[in-house]
């Protein structure tokens, strides 16, 4: 088994911030999508159900929400790429078991 090397505090802090940002992305992006559909007066499908609108239809607000939703989605792509690059860096450069610790346990 590969040993996990002690990580510098900055690396730990950046890792925690990246995970926090990923969770924020996972929560905010769908909520902005829900708001966008609501502002557009469109139905909000959710696994065969229709969710209620969060706000009244508003074309002006719809444009603003759309911009936010698209910007957040693009930032999310960058976060996903950064996360993958960090996993590869840990595995191939630092040669620690950060990446393999994410795999399910073999029984």
Helix-strand blueprint:
Elements: H1 9-39, E1 44-46, E2 49-51, H2 59-94
Antiparallel strand pairs: 1-2
Helix pairs in contact: 1-2
Structural class: mainly alpha
Q: What percentage of amino acids are in beta strands?
A: 5-15%
Shape: elongated
Rounded average pLDDT: 89
- Output the radius of gyration: 19 Å
| Helix share bin | 55-70%
Q: Give the distance, in angstroms, between the N- and C-terminal Cα atoms.
A: 16 Å
Characterize the largest beta sheet: strand count, sense, and whether it forms a barrel.
2 strands, antiparallel
Describe this structure in words.
This protein is mainly alpha-helical and 107 residues long. The chain is 63% helix and 6% strand. The protein contains two helices and two strands. The protein has helices at 9-39, 59-94, and strands at 44-46, 49-51. Strands 1-2 form a two-stranded antiparallel sheet. The relative contact order is 0.14. The mean pLDDT is 89.
